[in-house]
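Write out this protein's structure.
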Amino acid sequence: MAGLRMDGVVVGEYAKTAEAAAGDLDAAAADVGGEGVTSESYGALGARLGLGESYGRAAGALRRQLTDGAEALRSAAEALRQVTVRHDGQDADAAELIERAGRLDG
């Protein structure tokens, strides 16, 4: 594409940042509780209202969202790495073409 410039180092750093953020989300998902919460945890009224079960469902939903987010970030990081590799390959191909053209002129 004409006018499009890409700095492979910067894109590579974005990939590392996305990968690190995915790890943070994985850690957060592991920390989401819910174990040990029972109907009795909130007393008689809480048991009647189903607060323990509600908390468990909310914790499960949050865990899934964090896990999905981590997976999306890892996928983005991999895509960024692939872009960098392809871009570097195109630069190498262009350099080779220029070098060959120089040899033909000489």
